[in-house]
Amino acid sequence: MNSQVCLALLLSMGSVYQTITNAVLMEKLANSKTCADDECSYALSLAIALDDFMAPDCRFINIKKGQTIYVYSKLTPEEGAGVFWSGSVYSERYVDQMGILGYFPSNLVKETVKFKKNTDTVMIPTTDVDFYCF
């Protein structure tokens, strides 16, 4: 291996290590969530943003009014807590946000298409990894 390839490999490994060591565990938003499958890898529904939302930290995503959001999970609200869903924004106008998964307030969106009936969903516990900030 030439020295430039070795240097590039070491730098990229250092970058990965730096990212992992800078992860911060954030407060849990809920103890369980509803998903389409055991890994929350399939979308439950499509929603349209009714208003803008600016993410307060890295657990959340920014949404703009009119954007389409794929909803992957719905957190089970704790007493006195807000109701948050997780999803990914897809929009031609905000390409830089496409594919980023995060939480947003459910009251700021309107579900337009449901892919799964409530009886076909699974409720699973959240884990600490659900709330890490990188």
UniProtKB/TrEMBL annotation:
It comes from Esox lucius. CDD domains: MIAL. Residues 42-114 form the SH3 domain. InterPro entries: OTOR, Otoraplin_SH3, SH3-like_dom_sf, SH3_domain. One of its GO terms (biological process) is cartilage condensation. Residues 1-18 form the signal peptide. This is SH3 domain-containing protein. Keywords: SH3 domain, Signal. Gene3D superfamilies: SH3 Domains.
